[in-house]
Write the structure tokens for this entry.
Amino acid sequence: MTEFFFTKEQKWLDEWDAFLQKSERGLYNQLSDWIKSYEVYGFDYDFFLIKENGTIVGGCSIVIAKFSFFKFYIIPCGPVLSKGFENKIDYIIETLKKDATKRNCCYFQISLPIVNDSRVFSDYTLPTVPNSSIYFSGKSGTKFKYVIPLYGMRLVELLDKNYSQVFDGFSKNHKRNINKSRNENLVFKFVTSSQDIEEGYNCFVLNAQDKGYPLRSFLSMKHTLQTYITKDFAKLGCCFLNDKIVGAIYVMKTGNRFIYINGGVLKNYQDLNCSHYMHDQIIKLSLELGYKSYDVSVGGSEGVIKFKEGFGSELYNFIDTKHWIIKPMTFKIYNFLENILKSHKTKIASILIKIKKFNR
């Protein structure tokens, strides 16, 4: 018997996380702790799960973003479904959209993990949905920028290959840099102590400051990182030189593969090719574990993308994210305020407070 239900009950969230680890369609941004981390912004969450004979066979997470009386209903990427349940996609979308309306949300957004590309491992994604699907009744793109969907995968394919064969697929520059790094007395190991995790994360912070992109502070991420590492949902690998951490790499583990999330090398040690060395170590471990691929993730600057391509990776984009504006006037007001929010934060806060009081 197939059952559909909304839940926040930890018992089911634990089973959901276990399902994401076992299923090759599992997505790291569907893990319960990842979704719960949005609470730091004052957002709410829920999970819509499917069970067959008492066992979870699919579902998705929901982030309910709230700003004053504005509410947004976001499926970061999903659903994740076991084979044989793909025909439930339209029913799931319809149910979620109705729930968004019931919760008085002005906006509904969903991103399906579907790739229209014959090269991709079909085990990782949902099959293409027909043009008649309710999914295509939505408008393409994202109008809400604070819950980012997954846009695809960038895979280093490992299936039926040994390390030498994978290494042969690297660019000449990457081969040279990896070989050089092996002569630098670098030691790579995964860390679990709070001190090493903080020191490793500091490599990301300094790298973000140097490159000019935002990154959450270690204090805001400390509990989440420790939880992921303890549950073996993630690994933080550090590159040591003479017992000093000079670089770090953070990968999530779900869907029987590693997914690159963040990395950084201290400025004075850039010439040691630590970044090449650390990714190479993750690839070696992936092969040892029998994983089919290593996802070095999409996105990044032109230089970062070129670096990822150097590992012989292939980009697989998901089909367009879709959204529905449920309450056009409310969303129009939000859009107007959001456009001037950056330069008028104090005034906007005052306006929102007055609007909220008026609507009580």
